[in-house]
Amino acid sequence: MKRLSLAPTTGPDRLLAALAHAAVLLPGWGLLVPTALWAAHPRRGDYLSFQSLQALTYQVLQLLILGVVGLGVGVLYVGEAVVLLLLSSLISQDVSSVLFVLASAFGLVSLAAVWGLLTLGGVIAAILCLSGQDVRYPLLGAHMERALRAEGESAALDPEREARWMAALTYGGVLINLCGWLLPLIVWLTQKDRSPLLHFHALQSLIYQGVGDLLLFLASLMIMVTVFPLMLILALVERAAAPLAPFFLLPLGVLGLAGLGFSFIYVILGLWAGLRLAQGHEVTLPGLGRWLRQRLTISPSASGGSHA
Fold first, then answer.
1. Which listed site, 10, 194, 277, 297, has its alpha carbon 20 to 30 Å from 71?
2. pLDDT-based confidence at residue 267 (cuts at 50, 70, 90)
3. Are 170 and 187 in contact (CB under 8 A)?
4. In angstroms, rounded to a whole number, what is the distance separating the alpha carbons of residues 181 and 94?
5. How far apart are CA 209 and CA 292, in angstroms?
6. 97 or 308: whose pLDDT is higher?
7. Residue 149: beta bridge partners?
8. For the residues of 60-93, what is the DSSP string, one character each?
């Protein structure tokens, strides 16, 4: 199949496309820039539409990769602490401290290096857009072209496939802590009349992320409200409360693990919904999807099952 050629039609298109890619410099908040550009200029030339969606997809993948790397660094950090604790009787405390600092520095440098490389890709794409080139990220660009182009040899994007792709990306807001709901909110406010599928998923994603972020905020607030009084009590009674310290710290550990578990499930379920939708499957989140479909009085195809 011949490559889809999308050239910028005006100078502003180049500038806006470059802005969409350059938003990679703002991890998390940067997702809102290509989303707003795509929503504010629907069908303003396939070039700007495609570049905005490609930039948004790339930034969602950037956050996902950083999250996986960060999780790996965290696991290694905890594992290192356990190993050094077990070897505390075999090595001196000074050596143990040095090893701990070196390992921690290696983890932070690794995370920074991954962020830098991924950010560099977005910056290069922005520069190429400014020069008027039809930018494609390696692998991602070709995959998106196949997924979004109209049937046959048409050199245009399919509006329905484009709407489906954006609907899937709205679930990527779960990767932004406490403000990811802004992504589906922008799409729902500006594009809810574009297609039943986009209307349904923007609203489903908005409700899901709004409730999830609220629960995460309340959990964080509960932990903070619990931590400071317990730490103050331990500091005041000092050694007298040392034997009771585990009983004070146990509730904190339970709350922390519960919050971490909920956060993990929240993110995984949101990403699963977006991936399934992009693959052409019907997606209704447990409980919420069926209720929302009844409230909107729309057909089951609006939840995603009509795409081949």
1. 277
2. very high
3. yes
4. 47
5. 14
6. 97
7. 157
8. HHHHHHHHHHHHHHHHHHHHHHHHHHHTTTTS-H
Query: Is the pLDDT confidence value at 307 over 60?
Result: no
**DSSP state at residue 282:** -
Q: Distance between CA atoms of 49 and 56, rounded to whole angstroms?
A: 11
Instruction: Write out the E strands in the chain.
Output: none
Say which range, 80-89, 104-113, 221-230, has the weakest mean pLDDT: 80-89
Distances in whole angstroms, Cα of residue 260 to Cα of each of 74, 180, 220, 299: 13, 18, 10, 36
Task: List residues bridging with 157 in a β-sheet.
Answer: 149
Percent of the chain with pLDDT over 70: 76
d(CA 292, CA 276) in angstroms, rounded, equals 18
The closest of 27, 109, 24, 16 to 67, measured between CA atoms, is: 27
All residues at 6 or more sequence positions from 238 whose CB lies less than 8 Å from its CB, including other chains: none
pTM over 0.85: no
What is the Cα–Cα distance from 181 to 28, expressed in whole angstroms? Answer: 12
- Residue 289 is predicted with a pLDDT of 84
Asked if 8 and 47 touch (Cβ cutoff 8 Å), the reply is: yes
Nearest to 62 by CA among 139, 142, 121: 121
d(CA 115, CA 111): 6
